[in-house]
Design a protein that fits this description.
Layout: E1 7-9, E2 21-25, H1 36-39, E3 47-51, H2 68-81, E4 87-92, H3 94-104, E5 111-117, H4 126-139, H5 145-152, H6 157-160, H7 162-174, H8 177-188, E6 203-208, H9 216-226, E7 229-233, H10 240-243, H11 245-255, H12 260-272, H13 274-282, H14 289-303, H15 311-324, H16 328-340, H17 345-359, H18 361-396
Parallel strand pairs: 2-3, 2-4, 4-5, 5-6, 6-7
Antiparallel strand pairs: 1-3
Helix pairs in contact: 2-3, 4-8, 12-13, 12-14, 15-16, 15-17, 16-18, 17-18
Length: 397
């Protein structure tokens, strides 16, 4: 069964209907107000929607079991009610798990960006969630207060912000017991670890160093599996979006560029390397400025940012196209980029062999010569890095 989740458009959101939609997902036991401080820092460039889980805040209670896939479908219903189309998503804890479900499932081709905050592709063990569901059905969410305050916040936060903690714990008590228990059971059945590597949305994983629910090591493993940027926040527990609202908002602003040019520039730097792009920008003249902006906005901001293909595949297609069109200077650049995107020397060799059949042996021969030079440069750079690392170790010894 697909439950109902209701959301509110942040009142300070951008009034520009062309502004990207950013959906903020909550942690279990919290309401959308917990996102308000961070959300207010994102509304200048986004239409920001904060939603509540079933039986939380403004979302109606439910008595029918549901899965994480059902919760993801409910979020899509909400997004479609706001006009549909592409959107960005950031979620904390259970909200982050919904984001992973969206990215690995029904919204994989609709997400422009994903932020997973204090969450994982599998959170805890099924037995723990079913046990908590039973406890809440017997004793209500009020029985969770003592354990929750220590689980949610880093040491010292309660002393620094007693009013914030008090409000959040009151919201927990007000949550519908059965809906909370059903959320626990949805988490008990949630495991997307095998699918994390298939997520193509541009992603960031944010963790707290004092989070006992999703540890720093677990968050780092998730980021590696997703190929995502990873950020660890100091002196932060399980509610990073609350404890570090300013920092989280700043990270989301950087991860979710407000326009196509900014998005393209980020990808361009990641693929071609920062120094190369800096050199290109330094060489801009009044005659080439518009062309450089065109490349960044349309090649990098419109095509390379699309979620339909991962960067390895895009590099493979680009290599073949450049060989076919005899663009040898660009080929050298993109052979370096392909290795940065994760293609191995052996895979690039196979791509050139395949290209030889359809683009012609002479062109492939030229491409292999360029690849040989690129591989040698890569090997030499790696050898220099190893030598520098050994030298640094010797100095420490």
């Amino acid at each position: 069964m697909i439950p109902v989740v209701r959301g509110v458009l942040d009142p300070t959101s951008s009034t520009d209907q062309a502004a990207p939609l950013l959906v903020l997902g909550p942690s279990l036991g919290t309401v959308s107000d917990a996102w308000a401080p961070a959300a207010s820092r994102l509304t200048a460039t986004h239409r920001v929607v904060r939603f509540d889980l079933p039986g939380h805040g403004i979302s109606p209670a439910t008595r029918e079991p549901f899965t994480m896939a059902d919760l993801a479908a409910a979020v899509l219903v909400l997004v479609d009610s706001l006009g549909g189309g592409r959107f960005r998503y950031a979620g904390a804890s259970l909200g982050g798990a919904i984001g992973i479900e969206l990215a690995a499932g029904p919204a994989g081709d609709r997400l422009d960006g994903l932020a997973v905050i204090c969450s994982n592709a599998k959170i805890g063990e099924a037995e723990g969630w079913t046990s908590r569901a039973e406890q809440v059905r017997r004793q209500g969410t009020a029985s969770l207060i003592a354990a929750t305050s220590g689980r949610w916040f880093a040491p010292g936060y309660l002393t620094r912000e007693p009013d914030v903690v008090g409000r959040m714990l009151k919201d927990l008590v007000d949550v519908d017991d059965e809906s909370y228990a059903l959320c626990c059971e949805a988490l008990a059945g949630f495991d997307r670890r095998a699918d994390a590597g298939s997520i193509t949305a541009r992603s960031i994983v944010i963790a707290g160093d004092s989070d006992p629910v999703v540890t720093a090591d677990q968050a780092a493993e998730l980021a590696a599996a997703m190929g995502a940027r990873s950020e660890l926040l100091a002196d932060t527990g399980h509610q990073a979006q609350v404890e570090r609202a300013d920092t989280v908002a700043a990270l989301l602003t950087a991860a979710f560029p407000a326009n196509r040019y900014d998005a393209g520039m980020i990808v361009r730097r990641e693929v071609l390397s920062g120094p190369y792009v800096d050199a290109s920008l330094a060489g801009i003249t009044p005659d080439t400025r518009d062309f450089q902006r065109f490349i960044t906005e349309y090649a990098w901001g419109s095509v390379w940012t699309r979620p339909g293909l991962d960067r390895r595949m895009r590099s493979a297609v680009t290599i073949s196209s450049l060989v076919t069109a005899h663009h040898w200077h660009e080929l050298e650049l993109h052979l370096h980029a392909a290795q940065r995107n994760g293609l191995t020397k052996e895979e690039i060799t196979e791509i050139l062999l395949q290209t030889a059949i359809y683009a012609g042996v002479p062109d492939a021969n030229t491409a292999f010569g360029i690849a040989k030079r690129v591989f040698a440069e890569t090997a030499a750079a790696a050898q220099n890095d190893d030598a520098s690392a050994h030298a640094a170790d010797d100095e420490e010894d």
